[in-house]
């Protein structure tokens, strides 16, 4: 821990102290989940699908925390070069800037050792994030000189970060030296990322864009430590749990030199986000495996071409999708397959696929795809 006496804001603490007994279970779970994800076989096609989806939801989430209303679909359209006329110029510019910042993030690779943060990178990230975004005081890439108030009573109280430029500069210099010191570099990247996020936010060095910059700093530390997908996914979790996010800050600020509340919240977010990502990857692996299995069954004449086509169509539907015999004739796209087929033949198809355990059905004869046909 380091403490630093500012000119105008009293003593400021940079602390890695936390209650290990309170958070170690979450930390171990997060580590194991990440190792599981790293070891899963990720096909290029799957990775190409997951990465953009996570990025769009992350950009939408990190912007929404600051009040930007553009949805994940809106972010996707902007990234693809389309205009979203229903939003303001300021809102759209913030998203354009975040896309640029995430592209910068994607270009930062792990070198097998902890990433060394710099003020230059932090100021560059802030410059990108707030470029052409109108603000009364903010100058992209430059520290503030003046009073700001952070938080509100509903989330644990209002906090006043260091007030003058000289204090901000000195604290940022201390922060960079501390977060890169040997003692902090030896911490697990989950812990280092969390304390970097927290302390940057309580220094609050810029007039605007501090939260978005902090979440990118966190993402850089995680990404360069070979932690997959979660560096971007966390921002979406913070947005969905924004009250708890702010309360975790407030609780840690009140403790001054104990960051347990924020680290515990961060690790809880990491565990749930990693679990979600693992389930998504396993789901896609299962779908790819089923597609290959259906091809095998068709090639060995265990199922007909029509039955094969029905199964592959069902792969594109949600897990909970159910259908009846009647739907094969009345609902698109199944009706194309069964337009020239008798009811008796369709019934035989359903019976055959059910016997092979490729379809399941309930007492009401509503069928759905058995996605666990391979176990």
Number of strands: 6
List the domain count as a whole number: 2
Question: Can you give the helix content as a percent range?
Answer: 55-70%
Distance between the termini: 51 Å
| Structural shape | elongated
CATH superfamily of the largest domain: Fido-like domain
Strand content: 5-15%
- Low-pLDDT parts are none
Number of helices: 16
- Overall mean confidence score, pLDDT: 93
Describe the 3D structure:
The protein has 375 residues and is mainly alpha-helical. The protein folds into two domains: 2-30 and 41-274, Fic-like fold (Orthogonal Bundle), CATH 1.10.3290; 303-369, Arc Repressor Mutant, subunit A (Orthogonal Bundle), CATH 1.10.10. The protein is built from 16 helices and six strands. The strands form three sheets. A two-stranded antiparallel ribbon has the order 1-2. Strands 3-4 form a two-stranded antiparallel ribbon. The longest helix has 40 residues, at 260-299.
Q: Could you list some keywords that capture this structure?
A:
single chain; 375 residues; mainly alpha; Fic-like fold; 2 domains; two-stranded antiparallel ribbon; 16 helices
Structure summary:
With 375 residues, the chain is mainly alpha-helical. It has two domains: 2-30 and 41-274, Fic-like fold; 303-369, Arc Repressor Mutant, subunit A (Orthogonal Bundle).
């Amino acid at each position: 821990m380091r403490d630093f006496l500012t000119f105008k804001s009293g003593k400021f603490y940079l602390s890695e102290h936390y209650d290990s007994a309170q958070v170690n279970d979450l930390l171990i779970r997060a580590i194991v989940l990440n190792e599981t994800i790293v070891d899963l076989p990720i096909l290029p096609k799957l990775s190409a699908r997951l990465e953009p989806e996570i990025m769009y939801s992350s950009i939408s989430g990190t912007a929404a925390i600051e009040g930007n209303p553009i949805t994940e679909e809106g972010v996707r359209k902007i990234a693809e070069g389309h205009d979203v006329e229903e939003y303001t110029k300021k809102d759209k510019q913030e998203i354009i800037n975040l896309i640029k910042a995430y592209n910068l993030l994607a270009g930062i690779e792990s070198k097998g050792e902890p990433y060394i943060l710099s003020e230059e990178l932090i100021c560059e990230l802030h410059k990108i994030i707030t470029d052409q975004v109108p603000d009364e005081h903010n100058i992209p890439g430059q520290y503030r000189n003046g009073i700001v108030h952070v938080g509100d009573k509903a989330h644990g109280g209002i906090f006043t970060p260091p007030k003058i430029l000289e204090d901000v500069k000195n604290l940022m210099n201390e922060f960079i030296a501390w977060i890169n010191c040997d003692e902090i570099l030896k911490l697990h990247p989950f812990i280092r990322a969390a304390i970097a996020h927290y302390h940057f936010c309580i220094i609050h060095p810029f007039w605007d864009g501090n939260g978005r910059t902090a979440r990118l700093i966190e993402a850089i530390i995680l990404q360069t430590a070979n932690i997959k997908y979660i560096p971007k996914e966390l921002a979406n979790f913070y947005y969905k749990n924004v009250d708890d996010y702010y309360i975790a800050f407030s609780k840690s600020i009140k403790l001054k030199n104990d960051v347990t509340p924020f680290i515990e919240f961060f690790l809880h977010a990491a565990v749930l986000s990693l679990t979600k990502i693992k389930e998504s990857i396993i789901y896609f692996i299962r779908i790819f495996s089923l597609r290959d299995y259906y091809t095998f069954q068709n090639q060995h004449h265990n199922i007909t071409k029509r039955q094969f086509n029905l199964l592959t169509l069902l792969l594109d539907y949600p897990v909970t999708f159910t259908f009846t015999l009647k739907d094969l004739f009345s609902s698109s796209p199944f009706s194309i397959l069964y337009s020239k087929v008798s009811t008796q033949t369709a019934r035989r198809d359903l019976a055959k696929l059910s016997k092979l355990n490729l379809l399941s059905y309930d007492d009401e004869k509503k069928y759905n795809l058995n996605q666990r046909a391979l176990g």
